[in-house]
Write a structure and sequence with these properties.
This is Polyphosphate kinase 2 family protein. The chain is of the alpha/beta class and 268 residues long. The chain is built from 10 helices and 6 strands.
Length: 268
Amino acid sequence: MDRYRIRPGETLRLAERSTDDDGGLTKDEGKERLKANTERARDLQEQLYAEGQQALLFVFQAMDAGGKDSTTEHVFGPLNPQGVNVASFKTPTELEQRHDFLWRVHAQAPPHGLIKVFNRSHYEDVLIVRVHGWAAPDVIERRYDHIRHFESLLADARTRVVKVMLHISKDYQLERFRRRLERPDKHWKFNPGDLDERKLWDDYRRAFEVAIERTTTEAAPWYVVPAETRWYRNLVVSQILVDTLEAMDPQYPEPTFDPADYPPGSIA
């Protein structure tokens, strides 16, 4: 997955990155690999839960209609729900606005043994807030530092942080918006306000580029994943998940008793 990973010091130009890659695979091949990844992730998740010494935080960001909900469903939905939680961050409440911008986020960080998925995240405070000018430029600048330090703190506490931007084009977004209007069962997903945000596409793209460049680190890397070929998007994210869990190398804990003292045939 190195070609999708953004390295520290790398210049990011989203306009130059593919949004509809398929990795040279067929759809059937992709689905078979996704199935294998899902089985491997389930095993690793169980080990992570049993070990109880590490945690994984998976952050999704995207333009509107980028596929955050769908990716979460397809990649994390098949895992044991006892070991996975999802948090979404919408407009801050009055109480949340009276605290620093990371206050509500830190409270959602996963405890050891669990995987947490952020569907939108603390990055909204350097994306939409930057685009609309809801905070002064010097405040936004300091927030990049705060985010890096926050994620470094999580890493020091044995929480692995992985951040994924689901990358789509402006034309693809329009197609998805139209689909939501054409299908009655998708009307609930359409927000007229998204059309206003769409007018700011270039501003958002630049905000993403700056945020990713400023906050990708070895401990908390960013990946820019092409998201228009949805089966391939799911495969790539699942591979990042498996690769990350394997690097974490969770282990089943040693038993607190001698199994030889309890032959299976001797217990009743």
